[in-house]
Structure formats: structure tokens, C-alpha cells
Amino acid sequence: MPRIPSEPVVSLPQDASRNLAPLRDLYRAGPLQILPQPLWKAASRLGTLECRFVTHGGQTTGVELRQPGTFLVYGTLTGEPLAAASVKLDGVPVVWIHADLAAPLTPWFDHRDAFVRMLHVGGDLPLKAAVPGYSVREVDLTEELPLAATLLRASSGGSARGMDDVMAWARRPVVQPHAWLWAIDRTTRRPAALAVADVDTETREASLVCLEVLPDHRNRGVGTMLLQELMGRLERMAAITTVTLPLRMGTHPDHLFSACGFSGHTVWWRLTR
């Protein structure tokens, strides 16, 4: 009977562009644990990445994606820390890793930012909320991108996100026009909130890009209404929906998503020098 290794085994670096199929299989087994962002983002960069798969007991349990001198991502289904052969960071300025695996690495980095990953797997959706005075309609991607950028800036207190971001979202290969939605204030006939999602048809994964509500329209159920409408649409397009949310002191951005059927609470750290 073959001996099962007692420690994870990390493969030699490979050209990651040859490993999309096994990476997709691994991601489907644990999308919250394997990558901090949707699979399509990693897939779009595979030609520039080194890939090391982690095996434990004959099973592929994790992956390390590295762009030398730029960043490293380490994801694992079983919570193994980075294997000794893979700890060498080569001066990379950015590392993404599970929060519970980050402790040995944090002394080497100046900053750490926390993000929570959540998952919706379909099934029964909550009864759609209707908020008096508001309606939902699709964003016109040919005419209303500047308006979307204006709402982003106004809803986030002058955030750096703006027209460049919105234009980039609209050019992505995973753009889905039916997943760009406004919540409209019927009194002013102006947008009160914006929700945007991507849809990767190869992986059958939808991923939330943004959900923003203008300050004057918050705490009225507008965000819940918009997210529930979006989820009803995404369930017809994808098998799973993921979201990555920044965690800041005193904020609880995951509460709304939990109320709309998302589960899981996997925290990732982005460590930067």
C-alpha cells in the first residue's frame, strides 16, 4: 500500500497557461479558498504566471500563482501553510493569502488589508423586496457610463473609482449587460443605487463588481431590493455567484449579502510592502 505523504508536496513551477483545466477543477471544489477573486481574472493572466500545484495524500489541494517580482497568490482547500519550498518570496511586493495562514509572512510586509469572500450557490432566493418610490431598470451601456461613474464617486465619498473603472468594466470579456442595474428614485427619476456583476460562462461563475447606494437613499432597503433583483437574474446565467468585500474597522458589509442568500466567510489578507 503506497505511503501517504504527511506533508503537502509542491510541484515545480509550470507555465500556468497550460493549467487552466486543473485550476478550474480546483477552483470549483472551493472557490472561496483557492483564489481571492473570480477565476476569470486569474485565467486572463495565466500566460504571465508561474503555477505550482499543491498535492496532499495524492489529491490536489492548493495552488500558488506567482508573477516574479510582482505578486503571489496562495490558496488551499485544507488550510496547509505555505510549504517550506515555497516560502521564498523573492521580494514580491504583494501577497494574497488566507488570514489564518498569514502570520508567518506578516513580519516581512508593511501593510495588510482584509477582504471577505462569500458565495451564493443558487436554490431558493428570498422573496424580492419592493421599496415604495423606487424601481429597477438596466443601465444603458451606450449612454449611461458617465452617470454610473458619477454615482460611484458620490456614493463612496470621493473614492478614486470613476470613469476609468466603469469603462474598464464595460470592456471586460465577461461583461453582461443584463447584470448592470439601477435603482431609480421615482420622484426625481434619477439613479439612487448601482449594481454591476460579471458573468464567466466557461466557469459558470458570476461575480459582483459593485453595489453602491447614494447616501440620501441608504437604510431604506434599496440595496437589498437591487441585490435581490440582480441575484434573480444571475441565477439563470451562472451556477455560483461570488463576492469579495473589503473589511474595515466598524463596518459589516457582509450582512446585506447574508440576508440575500450568500454564505461562507473566508477572509483573505492582501499583504503589501
Plain-language structure description:
The chain is α+β, with helices and mostly antiparallel strands. The protein has 2 domains: 9-117, Aminopeptidase; 134-238, 3-Layer(aba) Sandwich (Aminopeptidase), CATH 3.40.630.30. Helix content is 21%, strand content 35%. It has 7 helices and 13 strands. It has helices spanning 20-29, 31-34, 39-43, 145-155, 163-171, 222-234, 254-259, and strands at 9-10, 14-15, 50-56, 59-67, 71-76, 94-98, 111-120, 134-138, 175-185, 190-200, 205-213, 240-247, 263-272. Strands 1, 2, 3, 4, 5, 6, 7, 8, 9, 10, 11, 12 and 13 form a 13-stranded mixed β-sheet that branches. Strand 9 (175-185) and strand 10 (190-200) form a beta hairpin. Helix 4 packs across helix 5 (163-171). The longest helix is centred in the C-terminal third of the chain and has 13 residues, at 222-234. The relative contact order is 0.18. The model is unreliable at 1-6 (pLDDT under 50).
Keywords for this structure?
21% helix; Aminopeptidase; 2 domains; 7 helices; alpha+beta; single chain; 273 residues; globular; disordered N terminus; 13 strands
Indicate the topology.
Layout: E1 9-10, E2 14-15, H1 20-29, H2 31-34, H3 39-43, E3 50-56, E4 59-67, E5 71-76, E6 94-98, E7 111-120, E8 134-138, H4 145-155, H5 163-171, E9 175-185, E10 190-200, E11 205-213, H6 222-234, E12 240-247, H7 254-259, E13 263-272
Helix pairs in contact: 4-5
**Which structural class matches the secondary elements?**
alpha+beta
CATH class of the largest domain: Alpha Beta
CATH architecture classification name of the largest domain: 3-Layer(aba) Sandwich
State mean pLDDT (0 to 100 scale).
86
